Each structure stands twice: as C-alpha cells, then as structure tokens.
C-alpha cells in the first residue's frame, strides 16, 4: 500500500502566546527567523460544513526542510485550533503536506472514508483543508495546495533560515 499523502513539510503547533513561542523556538531550539502573519484574512472558512469566522495569527520558520508553524487564536470561536487548545492546551496540532489540488485530494480521500474537518481559502487564494486523521493529539493532517502565493512565501522563509545569523528573530509580514 502506498501513502495517501506526500512527505510532511510542516509541523503546526497551537500556542497561547505567539511571541513567547517564537522566543522559545529561536533561543532554545535555534530555529528561525519566524515570519508573522497577523490576523489572517480568509475569503472562505468552514468547520464541519458551517461557515465560520476566526481571528488567528501565525508565525512560520524553517528547521531544515520542515516548516514550524506557530498558531494563535486569541478567542474561543469554534475552530480546530480552539478545540485543540480546550482539549490539550498547547502542542502539535497538525502536520502539513503539499498537494496539487485540495479538491481532487479530498475527493480521493472521501472514497476511503476520510473527511475534511476545517477547510477554506485565504484572501490571497491559498487553499487548504484539515482532514479527520487525528485520533491522537497532533495527528491531524493539513492539505496545502501548491500555488504562487504559498510557494513564494515558503521559499522566502526557507531561504532566510539557511543563512540566519540569529538576529531579528520575528519579522512581521504584510
């Protein structure tokens, strides 16, 4: 049997304090620099079929070939992030894999009984879906659709990590 997903490219952690988490990752682990996207703007966002609105911010950095994504949602509006925080506090919430088409990937997975839990598209046309594979904490998989916006951002962050001198560990984007 072959894997239904490509290799893991991202580890996504739910945190309570983004700047404190960045400080930990940069000073203790040595990963950085982190690029922060505050108040991510969604064109569409759904949780179990119902449209939702959330306020969330993320910071991303690279640890070799793997991206570390830190996610904070400062309110308890329904989402996979607030559900995870209520059950587990902070920690690894998902792993991310790239796909050429979220819609086609979800169609294939549906035939095996795997359904999306939260999905949508950002205002910058980045498509994603978190799928029901989380029978244990950190086991949810995020499908991330390849495209110019996401590929450019990921490449910029990976390049910055390769030559990072430890200075300016948190950089705000857009």
Descriptive notes:
This protein has helices at residues 18-29, 80-88, 102-110, 148-162, and strands at 8-14, 34-37, 42-47, 50-51, 57-63, 66-72, 91-99, 116-122, 127-131, 140-145, 170-173. With 174 residues, the chain is an alpha+beta fold. It has one domain (8-163): 2,3-Dihydroxybiphenyl 1,2-Dioxygenase, domain 1. It has an 11-stranded mixed beta sheet. Strand 3 (42-47) and strand 4 (50-51) form a beta hairpin. The longest helix is centred in the last third of the chain and has 15 residues, at 148-162.
Mean pLDDT value: 94
Strands, count: 11
Q: Structural class, from helix and strand content?
A: alpha+beta
Give the CA-based shape: globular
Ends distance: 43 Å
Strand order of the largest sheet: 4-3-8-9-10-7-1-6-5-2-11
Instruction: Quickly count the helices.
Output: 4
Give the count of structural domains: 1
Features:
174 residues, alpha+beta, 2,3-Dihydroxybiphenyl 1,2-Dioxygenase, domain 1, 11-stranded mixed β-sheet
Topology:
Layout: E1 8-14, H1 18-29, E2 34-37, E3 42-47, E4 50-51, E5 57-63, E6 66-72, H2 80-88, E7 91-99, H3 102-110, E8 116-122, E9 127-131, E10 140-145, H4 148-162, E11 170-173
Parallel strand pairs: 1-6, 2-11, 7-10
Antiparallel strand pairs: 1-7, 2-5, 3-4, 3-8, 5-6, 8-9, 9-10
In brief:
The chain is α+β, with helices and mostly antiparallel strands and 174 residues long. Helix content is 26%, strand content 37%. The chain has one domain (8-163): 2,3-Dihydroxybiphenyl 1,2-Dioxygenase, domain 1 (Roll), CATH 3.10.180.
């Amino acid at each position: 049997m072959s894997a239904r997903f490509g290799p893991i490219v991202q580890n996504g952690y739910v945190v309570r304090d983004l700047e404190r988490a960045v400080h930990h990752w940069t000073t203790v682990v040595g990963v950085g620099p982190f690029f922060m996207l505050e108040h991510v703007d969604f064109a569409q966002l759904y949780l179990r079929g119902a449209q939702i609105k959330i306020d969330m911010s993320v910071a991303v950095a690279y640890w070799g070939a793997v991206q570390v994504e830190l996610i904070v949602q400062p309110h308890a509006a329904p989402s996979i992030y607030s559900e995870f925080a209520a059950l587990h506090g902070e920690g690894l919430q998902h792993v991310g894999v790239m796909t050429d088409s979220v819609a086609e990937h979800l169609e294939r997975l549906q035939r095996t009984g795997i359904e999306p839990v939260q999905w949508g598209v950002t205002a910058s046309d980045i498509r994603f879906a978190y799928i029901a594979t989380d029978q244990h904490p950190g086991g949810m998989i995020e499908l991330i659709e390849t495209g110019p916006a996401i590929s450019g951002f990921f490449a910029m962050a990976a390049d910055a990590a390769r030559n990072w001198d430890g200075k300016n560990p948190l950089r705000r984007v857009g």
